Amino acid sequence: MDMISQAISSLRVGRGTVRRFRQSGSWGMRYSGLTGSGFHVVLRGSGWLIAADAPPVALQPGDAVLITSGADHGLSHAPCALHDLSQVALSLDQPTSGPADFEFLCGAYRLDHGRVHPYLAVMPDLLVVSPDHERFPALRPVVSLLDDDASRAQTGTGVARTAILDLMLFHVLRQWMEDEGSKGLPAIPDPAITAVLRTIHNSPQTQWTASRLGETVGMSRVAFTRRFTSVVGKPPMTYLRDWRLGCAARLLRETDASLAAIARQIGYSTEFAFAGAFRREYGVSPGRFRQVNKAQHQQSGRR
User: What are phi and psi of 206, to 5 degrees?
Assistant: First the structure.
């Protein structure tokens, strides 16, 4: 479960979206072009999950569909081919009088650059989980919180939404993995790169270089860089930078540690170097990022 927690945490902070959809009669929609991870949760009615290369799957109230790494897919009132569905319009549904035939939540972390974490990328593209509230009682209140968030007029992506998205992804993956047993434990198809990822995750504060990381698995710098980039989708030092800054964002959001302390904790020699890297990645200074998230958290607490 540690790698799954790290994989979820690696998704870009502040890019979370949640939408509520209501459909009646003959309906269908296709989701494509997502770079990131997301999910659907059925609130009311029955429908079908449509994939490009798999049979349609019936969905009932409570079912959750997890899209691990942005695979194209669709939802429909009846079985059909994916190419028969129209691309979804990502906008809030207009209020209607009375319930619709099919109502569901759609949530996602959208990444502007790069790929999802390798651990998510090697999992099945689409996972369907029927909730077991006796064994996993936390899932029901998380869905209620998501529904409440999606129903509000505000469309900001504050700390509360990020936390709820994290919880939703975690609990759905947790149940799926426990239901699947050993079959639900994917492995990055390269033990050496898996070991390096764990090293980076466990010790981001170490002054790593590509050569030093390669040495941990007995590889030269050139061979290691080529292999890591092939498996992960980005060079090792780029991955290290992204992981460090992701850790920094979480520390800014969740702790009162000073900027200097956070810089040391994630491997930056000075607060100035950390602040510059953070601003380039997130578009705001670390201090401003913390202020905005703190204000949003306080506002959520008053609702």
Answer: -70, 145
Is residue 141 within 8 Å of 80, Cβ to Cβ?
no
Task: Specify burial of residue 136 (Cβ count, 10 A radius: 0-12, 13-18, 19+).
Answer: middle
Q: What angle do CA 171, 187, 173 make, to 5 degrees?
A: 10
> Which regions of the chain does DSSP assign to beta strands (E)?
16-23, 28-31, 36-44, 47-51, 57-59, 64-67, 73-76, 102-110, 126-129
Q: Output the CA–CA distances (angstroms, integers) from residue 41 to 199, 208, 220, in the order listed.
A: 35, 41, 46
- By the 10 Å C-beta count (0-12 exposed, 13-18 middle, 19+ buried), 55 is classed as exposed
Assign 62 a pLDDT band (cuts: 50, 70, 90).
very high
Which letter, b or e, does each residue of 103-129 get, where b requires 16 or more Cβ atoms within 10 Å of its Cβ?
bbbbbbbbbeebebbbbbbebebbbbb
Q: How far is CA 103 from the centre of its chain?
A: 22
- Helix (H) / strand (E) element for 284: namely none
Residue 94 has pLDDT above 60, yes or no: no
Distance of CA 85 to the CA centre of its chain: 25
Query: With contact defined as beta carbons under 8 Å apart, do 204 and 267 qualify?
Result: yes
Residue 228: which of 260, 255, 188 has the closest Cα? 188
Mention every residue, 6+ apart, whose C-beta is less than 8 A from residue 172. Answer: 39, 64, 66, 127, 129, 139
The pTM for the full model equals 0.64
Give the Cα separation of 174 and 135 in Å (integer): 11
